[in-house]
Amino acid sequence: MSQHEHVRVAVIGSGFGGLGAAVRLRREGITDFVVLERADSVGGTWRDNSYPGCACDVPSHLYSFSFAPNPDWPRTFSGQRHIRAYLEHVTDTFRLRPHIRLNHEVMMMRWDNDELRWEIETSGGTLTADIVVSATGPLSDPKIPDIPGLASFEEAGGKVFHSARWDHDHDLTGERVAMIGTGASAIQIVPAIQPKARSLTLFQRTPPWVMPRMDRAISGVERWLHRQLPFTGKARRGLLWGIRELQVSAFTKRPNELRLIESIAKANMGRAIKDPALRARLTPDYRIGCKRILLSSEYYPALAQPNVDVVASGLAQVRGRMLVAADGTETEADTIIFGTGFHVTDMPIAQRVVGADGITLAEAWKDGMESLRGATAAGFPNWMTIIGPNTGLGNSSMILMIESQLNYLADYVRQLDVLGGRAALAARPSAVAAWNRRVQTRMERTVWNAGGCDSWYLDANGRNTTIWPGTTAEFRRATRQVDLSEYEVVRARPLSDAKPGGPGSGAAKGAVA
C-alpha cells in the first residue's frame, strides 16, 4: 500500500461483516475501496477460533449469505474448517482479493475536520478514506481475567492459552488440564480433549443451559437437489429463519414460556448425568435464554467421565501449578485453557477511533455503547460499524443482521452521492439518544434483562448494549434506508473560512447544513 493512498471506503476486518461489506460495495458499483485485515488471511473469528471441536450453533443454511448460498454444506451444523473455507470461497467468487490488505492492523484512525475524511494509520502504511466501515466484530479480541498469580503458573513450567489462540503445537495427551469457563467454546472443547487428558478440571462460575445438538450429515441427495434446484435451498433457509422468528416473542415478551424448553434441557442433562450431586452443580438457577442457550450432545457425557471434575466456582488464584477456586478448592494442572470470551462491550478498536471532537470512541462510550440503528455514532461522521451496539441475537443467525446493516451501508453511500461534493453525514446526538431509549425500553422485559443472570450481554454498568430486542425482520425494516432527518449534513467550507487546528482537533472547517 502506497503512502497517502486515498480511497472512497476503508473496511476494517475480513470476517463475515467485512467481506459482506466488500461484496455489497462492489454490487453497488463501488470499486474504490480497501479491506484492512490485521492477520495474514481472511476469516475473522472463524480463522482465529480453530480449537478442537469448533463449530457453529446456527444451522449451516442460515449461517451463510443469502447472496452466496452454499448447496454443499456437509453437515446441518458446520464446523470451523468448512465455514472458513466458505469465506475463502466468497472472497474468490466476488473477486475481493485485489481489495484486501493483509497484515495491515489499524493502529489509529482520526477524522479530519478540514478535509472531511478519515486518516488511517496501519501497520503497513497510511491512507485516507471518505468513509470507514468498522467490521472488526465483537468476538475478535480474547478476554483473559486478571487472576492473581497467573504468571507464576508459566514460571513453574505450565502452559496457558485462550481458546481463540489455540496452541496446536502443545499436546494435551496425558496432561492435567484446567478449563476455565463454561461458554459456547468450552462446551465444544471439553468433549474434544477429555479422551486424551489425564485429568480435566472444569472451573464453572455459572452453569449454562445446554440443549441437544441435532446435527447430522447432509446427504448427497440433498446437496444434489440444492445444486440442481436452488429454490430448495432457499426454502430450507426460509424455514429455518421462520421457526426462529416465531420463537422471538418468548425471549422478548413472555420469558415464562421458556419453561418448556428448560424441561427439555434438564432431560438432556438427566440422560447423561446420573450423579445427583453433579446434576445439582450443573443445573442453572436462572431462566433459560438469559445467557445464550448452548447446543451439545457430547458435553454432559464428557463431564460424566471419571477423569473429569467440575468445580462449581470460578478460578480465584494461582500458586505455581496449584489452582485455587473461589470456594477454596485446590487443583494441580499442567495446562490452563481460558474459554472466557471476548471484549464485547468494551471493544479495543474503540480506543483507536478519534472523532470530530478529538475524543476516542471509547471515551464517547465510557458510560456504555450507543449507536444509531446499530450503525453510526454521534461525533464520528462517515463512520459505520457492522455488528454494532444492540445488534446481537440470542436465537438466530447474525448473518441476517449483517445483511440488514449492509442495506443501510448501501443507502448511506447513495445518500452521500446524491448530496454531491465534499460532504459527510454525522449522526445527530438526539437521534442516537432516541433510538437507544426505544431499544432499552423494549429490553426491560426481555429474558436477557429479566432472566436472573449476569451475562456477557451486559456492560460494566449492567446495561444490555449487545442484544437486539426484536425479530430480524423488524431490524431489516429499521435499516432499509437512511433517514436524513437523523443526520447532520456536514460540508467543507471555503479555505478562507478555515479555523486553526489540525485533523481531529475539533476546530472543524466543515459547515453543518
UniProtKB/TrEMBL annotation:
Cofactor section: FAD
GO molecular function: oxidoreductase activity, acting on paired donors, with incorporation or reduction of molecular oxygen, NAD(P)H as one donor, and incorporation of one atom of oxygen
Any Pfam family hit: Pyr_redox_3
Record's keyword terms, sorted: FAD, Flavoprotein, Monooxygenase, NADP, Oxidoreductase
InterPro entries linked to this entry: FAD-bind_Monooxygenase_sf, FAD/NAD-bd_sf
Gene3D superfamilies named in the record: FAD/NAD(P)-binding domain
PANTHER family: FAD_NAD(P)-BINDING DOMAIN-CONTAINING PROTEIN-RELATED (PTHR42877:SF4), L-ORNITHINE N(5)-MONOOXYGENASE-RELATED (PTHR42877)
Functional description taken from the UniProt entry: Catalyzes a Baeyer-Villiger oxidation reaction, i.e. the insertion of an oxygen atom into a carbon-carbon bond adjacent to a carbonyl, which converts ketones to esters or lactones using NADPH and/or NADH as an electron donor. Thus, can convert bicyclo[3.2.0]hept-2-en-6-one into the oxidative lactone products 2-oxabicyclo[3.3.0]oct-6-en-3-one and 3-oxabicyclo[3.3.0]oct-6-en-2-one. Is also able to catalyze the sulfoxidation of methyl phenyl sulfide (thioanisole).
Similarity section: Belongs to the FAD-binding monooxygenase family.
Name of the protein: Baeyer-Villiger monooxygenase
Organism name: Streptomyces ficellus
Lineage summary: Bacteria, Bacillati, Actinomycetota, Actinomycetes, Kitasatosporales
